[in-house]
Predict the 3D structure of the following.
Amino acid sequence: MAKLAKRLQKIREGIDPTKLVALSDAIALVKERATAKFDETIEIAMNLGVDPRHADQMVRGVVNLPNGTGRDVRVAVFARGAKADEAKAAGADIVGAEDLLEIVQGGKIDFDRCIATPDMMPLVGRLGKVLGPRGMMPNPKVGTVTMDVAGAIKASKGGAVEFRVEKAGIIHAGIGKASFDAKALEENIKAFADAVIKAKPAGAKGNYVKRVAISSTMGVGVKVDPSSVSA
């Protein structure tokens, strides 16, 4: 415990929790404090002026990060026949129909993203209680219900990040790795923030982007000046 406390004290040095920092400076602070023995994920948290309990204030979408996420994303595809063959050829990790349904219903979810062709949705709909809470339910609005399964697989593995506002009006996402250079992280963060800003719902009133912070998996959060994250 003493060792952990000492580490936390060290990574907090030089960070004023009350001060807003320009994005480039925040990235430098977070990167130099990402000292874990693994390549930490850099995460962004955006606090929005919305109440997602109201349908006209829901914020969700997908963004293709210009420099990828640095993660090895496992993709499952619900498809049959030629579309199943297309999915396998495009590099899907798991492809199936009723057989895949049974695997997921059995509690084995060995994938990070789920794609389905439109004709499979009556089947996939039965997994709403399993996939929904994990944010994995295929949805045409974010390109995961599509006939272009090859394109969706490529996007998922290449850096597509889905976002959805949580109850408290906060959006969280991993936008890269600590090993990324500062320019790549800045480009990813600005692309993500731009997508969230463009997804501003009709019901949002007043200040939309209230607070922004970035952190690494084992690090502390750094408050970012919201005006510096716009592309």
About this structure: The helical segments are 2-12, 23-32, 81-89, 98-105, 121-124, 128-131, 149-158, 182-198. Residues 101 and 213 are 38 Å apart (CA to CA). Residues 182-198 form the longest helix (17 residues).
